[in-house]
C-alpha cells in the first residue's frame, strides 16, 4: 500500500462481494482475517481485508478469473495477490473445510448499511490455531480476553478439526 | 493498557474501530516515510564520522 490511505473502503468491499453473490459468481462469503477479529476485539493495524468465499464453480480455479474480471470492470486494480479498491488491498480466498464451515455459520452484520457476514469468534480462534503463526496466537489471546466465546462450540470445532489451543 | 480498557475498546461500534484502523495505518505510513527521509542524512553523517 504505497499511496496515502483516505479510509478503509470496507462498505465498498462488502457491496462488491454482495454483487458477486447476486451475479452467481460466488455462492456465499464472509469477512475473515484480521478485520473479522477486529469486529470482536480492540482495533489494531492491518493492511488488507480477507473475503473468504464459497465458490459457485467447484472446479480448480474456484471461479477466480471470473471474479477478478468482474471486479476489474468495476475499477478494481490487481497488484500481486491482492485486488485493490481505492488503494486498499483485498484478498478473495476460496473456502474449504474449516473456512467453508466458518462462512456458512458466519454472523450476519450490517456495515454502514451494507448487509454482510463476519466469521464467528470461535471459528476465528480455530482458524488461528490451525495456522499457528505468532500473530495468530496473539489473536487467540485477544479474542479469549476481550469477547464472549461459546466454549462448547469452540471445543466442538477444535475436536472435529483435531486442533488444540496453545498452552498459556 | 489494562485489560478493562482493552475490553472497552473492543466494545466500540465496528465502524468506529475500522476508522481507528485507518488512523493506525496512516500513522505507520507517516513514520515509515519519515524514517526513509532520515536514512540518507543519517548515512551521510555516519560516513562523515567514520571516513574510510
Write the layout of secondary structure elements.
The complex is a heterodimer of chains A (168) and B (52).
Chain A: H1 10-22, E1 26-32, H2 33-40, E2 49-55, H3 64-73, E3 77-79, E4 82-85, E5 88-94, H4 98-104, E6 107-111, E7 114-118, H5 121-131, H6 134-146, H7 151-160
Parallel strand pairs in A: 2-5
Antiparallel strand pairs in A: 1-2, 3-4, 4-5, 6-7
Helix pairs in contact in A: 4-5, 5-6, 5-7
Chain B: H1 3-10, H2 14-49
Describe the protein in words.
The complex is a heterodimer of chains A (168) and B (52). Chain A has 168 residues and is an alpha+beta fold. Chain A has a domain at 3-119: Beta Polymerase, domain 2 (2-Layer Sandwich), CATH 3.30.460. Chain A has 7 helices and 7 strands, in the order H-E-H-E-H-E-E-E-H-E-E-H-H-H. In chain A, strands 1-2-5-4-3 form a 5-stranded mixed β-sheet, with helices on both faces. In chain A, a hairpin with a 2-residue loop joins strand 4 and strand 5. In chain A, helix 4 runs antiparallel to helix 5 (121-131), helix 5 (121-131) packs antiparallel against helix 6 (134-146) and helix 5 runs parallel beside helix 7. The longest helix of chain A is centred in the first third of the chain and has 13 residues, at 10-22. Chain B has helices spanning 3-10, 14-49. The termini of chain B are far apart. The model of chain B has no long low-confidence stretch (mean pLDDT 82). Chain A binds chain B through residues 1, 4-5, 7-8, 10, 35, 38-47, 109, 111-112, 142, 145-147, and chain B through 3, 6-7, 9-10, 12, 14-15, 17-22, 24-26, 28-29.
Concise account of the structure shown:
Chain A is of the alpha+beta class and 168 residues long.
Strand content of chain A: 15-25%
Percent of sequence in beta strands of chain B: under 5%
- Helix % of chain B is over 70%
Q: What is the topology, as strand order, of the major beta sheet of chain A?
A: 1-2-5-4-3
What's the number of extended β-strand segments of chain A? 7
Uncertain residue segments of chain A: none
Q: How many beta-strand elements of chain B?
A: 0
- Multimeric organization: heterodimer
Distance between the termini of chain A: 35 Å
CATH class placement of the domain at 3-119 in chain A: Alpha Beta
Write down the overall mean pLDDT of chain A.
Answer: 93
- The 3D shape of chain A can be described as globular
Give the second-level CATH assignment, the architecture of the domain at 3-119 in chain A.
2-Layer Sandwich
Q: SSE string of chain B, helix = H, strand = E?
A: HH
Q: How big is the Rg of chain B?
A: 19 Å
Amino acid at each position: 500500500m504505497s499511496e496515502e490511505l483516505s479510509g478503509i473502503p470496507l462498505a465498498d468491499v462488502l457491496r462488491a462481494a454482495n454483487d458477486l453473490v447476486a451475479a452467481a459468481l460466488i455462492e456465499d462469503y464472509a469477512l475473515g482475517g484480521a478485520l473479522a477479529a477486529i469486529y470482536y476485539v480492540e482495533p489494531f493495524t492491518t493492511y488488507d481485508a480477507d473475503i473468504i468465499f464459497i465458490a459457485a464453480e467447484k472446479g480448480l480455479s474456484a471461479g477466480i478469473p471470473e471474479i477478478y474480471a468482474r471486479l476489474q470492470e468495476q475499477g478494481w486494480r490487481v497488484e500481486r495477490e491482492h485486488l485493490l479498491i481505492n488503494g486498499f488491498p483485498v484478498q478473495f480466498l476460496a473456502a474449504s473445510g474449516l473456512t467453508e464451515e466458518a462462512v456458512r455459520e458466519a454472523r450476519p452484520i450490517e456495515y454502514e448499511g451494507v448487509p454482510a457476514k463476519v466469521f464467528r469468534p470461535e471459528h476465528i480462534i480455530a482458524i488461528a490455531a490451525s495456522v499457528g503463526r505468532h500473530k495468530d496466537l496473539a489473536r487467540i489471546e485477544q479474542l479469549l480476553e476481550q469477547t464472549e466465546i461459546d466454549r462448547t462450540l469452540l471445543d466442538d470445532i477444535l475436536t472435529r478439526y483435531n486442533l488444540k489451543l496453545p498452552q498459556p | 493498557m489494562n485489560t478493562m480498557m482493552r475490553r472497552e475498546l473492543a466494545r466500540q461500534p465496528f465502524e468506529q474501530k475500522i476508522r481507528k484502523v485507518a488512523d493506525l495505518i496512516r500513522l505507520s505510513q507517516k513514520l515509515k516515510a519519515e524514517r526513509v527521509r532520515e536514512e540518507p542524512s543519517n548515512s551521510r553523517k555516519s560516513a562523515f564520522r567514520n571516513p574510510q
